[in-house]
# Entry
Amino acid sequence: MNGSLVRQHVLRAWKKHWPLQMASVTVMTLVLVIMNLLFLAFTAFNRTVEHWGRGLEMIVYLKENVPSSTVEKFHREIESSGQFDEIHFTTKGDATKKFLQALGPESLELLKDPGWNSPIPASLELRLSASIPSQRRVFALQEWSARFRGLEYVDDVFYGQGWVENFSRFLASARGLVAMIWTLSLSVGLLIVSNCIRLSFLQRKEEIEILELVGATPAFIRTPFLVEGIVLGILSSLLSLLLSYSIHAVLINWMRSEWSFWFAFSELPPLQPWYILTNILAGVGFGALGAWNCVRRLNTGWSAAG
Amino acid sequence: MIEFNHAYKIFRNGHQGLKNVTFSIDKGEFVFLSGPSGAGKTTLFRLISAFDKPTSGEVHILGTDVSSLTAQQMPQFRRRIGVIYQDFRLLNDRTVCENVAIPLVVRGDRANYIEKRVREVLDQVGLSFKINSFPEELSGGEQQRVAIARALIHHPGVLIADEPTGNLDQELSVEIFNLLETVNAQGTTVFVATHDAELIRRKSFRVIRIHDGQVVDR
# Structure
C-alpha cells in the first residue's frame, strides 16, 4: 500500500469520525499527562532525597598512637579514591580540646593534669563526593565503612548507621511505590486507550468487511489503521507535553511562593529531553498497540461472515 | 467452475444450514438460486465466496477447494470472484470512482490502468456520468449498478449475487437482471440468489431450488 493511500485514509478518518478521533486523543492525552506528572513528582522526590543525601558524613576513629606517616598514607589513599569531597583529620589533642570546650571552660583544666589520658581518639571526617548518585550513596557509605573497619589502625567507623539504614529502606519502598503507581497507570492507560481506539475502529467495521470481500491482504487493511493509531498517539503526546509544561509552570510559581522552604520541589526542573522523547515514543506505542490490537480482532478474514 | 459435493454446514448452535448439497455449475452458465428466506441461500453463497467453510463435503470454486484455503491464500482467491449483495455494501465516504476502483487498488494495479478500467466498467453499467458522485447521491438502482461495476472491474471468473434486487422495485430489478445477462453474455459465470418467482419464470435460465438447507431441484 502506498503512502498516498495511507494519507488519504488518515485524513478521511479525521474528516468522517472527528468526534471519536478527538475522544481518543483526549483520553490518550490525559493518560500521558498523568504519567508526566507522576514522573515530575518522582523527579522532585529524587531531588529531595539527593539533597538530604548530600549531608551524609562518616567519621573514622583511629586507634591510639598511630604513626603520623600511617595517617598521612591513609589520608592520601582516601583522597586518591575520588569518592570524597572533604577529608578532615582531627588529632587526638584537637578532638579532646573540642570535647572539653563543649563540656565547659572549667573542663579544660583536665589538660593540665599530666596523669589524665584523654579517651577521645584522633579521627578523619569524610564527606561523600556529590558526584556519587543518590541511589548509590548509602551503599557507598556501607562499603567504605566495612573497608575501613578492616584496617588495623582503625578503631571504629560511625556514619549514623541506624538513621542511614532506615533512610535507605524508606528510599527503596518509596521508589518501589512510585514505580508501581507508574506501571499501574501505564497498564490502565494502555487499556483505556486501546478500548477508545477500538470504539473508533468498530465504527468502520464495514470498511474492513468490504476490503476483505475484494481480496485485500491483512497488511493492506491493517497498515492505514496502524498509521492512524500512530498519528493519534503523536498528537496526544504533543498535547500532553504542552499541558504538562503549562501545569509545571503554574505549579512552580505557586511552590516558589508557598513552598520555598522545600528546595527540591520549588526548584523542580521541567521535563528533560530524554523524557520528552520517551513520552513521544510512548504515545506512538499507545496508538500503534491500541490500533493493532483492535484491527487484528476485526480483520479476521471473515468479518463479513457474521 | 462451481461444484458442491455432499456439502454440509452445521453451525455452532447445532443448526444445519446446508444438508448434503450436491450440484455443479459450468463455465459461462447463468444460474438462479431460489428458495424462501432461511432456506440456506446466503449460507451457500458464503461458502462460494470463502467466507465460511463447509463442515463436511467438498466445495470447489474455479478449481480451488474452499476447505483447504489458508489465510494467506484467501485474498488471492477472493480476487478471482465478484460478489454483489442486496445492501450494495458501498463506502459512503468515497466517490463512485473510488468505490469501483477498490478491487484494483488492493491488487496494487497502476493508477492509469485503474482509471481506464473504472471508466470502462462504469460505461458498461451506464454510470459514467456519476463517476464523481457519492453513493448517498445515487438511487437504489444506481447504487446496485456501482456494486456490480465493483464486482466486475477485476474480470472475475464467477459473479455471485445474493438477492441483488431485494431492495429495488420491479422496473429497476429488470434493469439489473438485464445488466447481469450482458455480463454473462461476455463469458462470466453468473450465479444469482433470488426469491422473485416472477422474474425466474420470465427468464429461461437454469434454477437450483433450495429448501431447509437441501437442494430440492437442480
In short: Residues 161-202 of chain A form the longest helix (42 residues). The radius of gyration of chain A is 32 Å. Chain A touches chain B at residues 5, 12, 15-16, 206-207, 209-218, 220, 301-302, 304-305 (CB under 8 Å).
